[in-house]
Design brief:
Rossmann fold, alpha/beta, 39% helix, 22% strand, 7 helices, 8-stranded mixed β-sheet
Length: 236
């Protein structure tokens, strides 16, 4: 049975997501017949209004995937972070918020039963990997864009979900961090380096390639047919 579309505008309707002791604001979009849902973990100093994440979310929606873009910090916390820059690197806190949002997705009637993936950018990728390591049965796939997987620390070796790392070809320090993370991951994994792209993927066509790769990965691991094909491959 197809789910009711939930997309009043290009980023989705406003929702308030309980995560521990706080409520987080987010935008939820559910295309008709959604095959899965992607929860976005934004990076350093960013928010659910990030034009890059919004652009990726639109592509995923066009591919039949629901999206939830949330602010991982409350407005008061964002004010503190703007002044100190500390909370954006509190990976345990951000991962805890992601897990709270994941639990909400599992309980909310509009999203209950949808397979969950994480799309993490910059420091948000570290939080996404920590959260995925803690909930291998709830999270089916992770995509990192220009991510800092090193911030996941020892959790990297406990990640069991398929993980795609996407890095710009000119983002040399981050390439090195991602190559090291690839070696430490014990799951299905892949590293994609986009030639000529810098950290924010602002070059012509770079962000579109990120969105294409992410959509391909999530459709492979979040859709029922993709999961069945993988299971068949494991039995052979």
């Amino acid at each position: 049975m197809a789910r009711e579309a939930h997309r009043p505008d290009e980023t989705g309707g406003l929702v308030r997501v309980p995560a521990g002791a706080v409520n987080l604001e987010g935008n939820l979009a559910i295309p008709d017949g959604a095959a899965g849902i992607v929860l976005f973990a934004h990076g350093s100093g960013s928010s659910r209004h990030s034009p890059r994440n919004r652009a990726v979310a639109r592509t995923l929606q066009h591919e039949g995937l629901a999206t939830l873009l949330i602010d991982l910090l409350t407005p008061d916390e964002e004010m503190v972070d703007d002044a100190t820059g500390l909370l954006r690197f509190d990976i345990d806190l951000l991962a805890e918020r992601l897990l709270g949002a994941t639990d909400w997705i599992g309980k909310e009637p509009a999203t209950h039963g949808l397979r969950v993936g994480y799309f993490g950018a910059s420091t948000g990728a570290g939080a996404a990997l920590v959260a995925a390591a803690q909930r291998p049965n709830a999270v089916r796939a992770v995509v990192s864009r220009g991510g800092r997987p090193d911030l996941a620390g020892s959790a990297l070796s406990r990640v069991r979900v398929p993980t795609l790392l996407i890095v710009g070809g000119e983002d040399l320090p981050v390439i090195a961090l991602n190559r090291d993370a690839l070696d430490r991951l014990q799951s299905k994994k892949r590293l994609e380096i986009i030639p000529g792209a810098t950290h924010l993927f602002e070059e012509p066509g770079a962000l579109e390639e990120v969105a294409r790769l992410a959509a391909e990965w999530f459709r492979q691991w979040l859709t029922q047919t993709g999961g069945l094909r993988e299971a068949a491959g494991q039995r052979e």
